[in-house]
Amino acid sequence: MFDSNTYLEAQTGVCMLPDVKRQDFLVLLHMAYGLPVDYSAIIKYSDLSSVIRLADRLQFDGMLTEIENFLITLSQKEILRWEMVAEQFRFKKLREVILAIIKRIDQK
């Protein structure tokens, strides 16, 4: 795309992503450059789900793993809120934790 003058991106050196929020992209850049990412702040002040969608779209597998590991550290109540995301983005470890929580609740 950037090596061929056929595409606008090669001519301008810019790749526009109009459907991507600036804040979400900045989170990905932080991770790509090895800067710390505060996922708990993203949950509190923004939308971690949109960051997950963008990381999946751009194939930031390392970030998806990092996010999954963060989600596993949340309280049981918070973890259960992420069930749909765990299914949609194939978060195997998170799904296992969610299933274990549900089994414990059912046994009570």
UniProtKB/TrEMBL annotation:
InterPro entries on file: BTB/POZ_dom, SKP1/BTB/POZ_sf
Gene3D superfamilies assigned to the protein according to its UniProt record, in alphabetical order: Potassium Channel Kv1.1, Chain A (3.30.710.10)
Residue ranges of every copy of the BTB domain listed in the record: 1-73
Name this protein carries in UniProt: BTB domain-containing protein
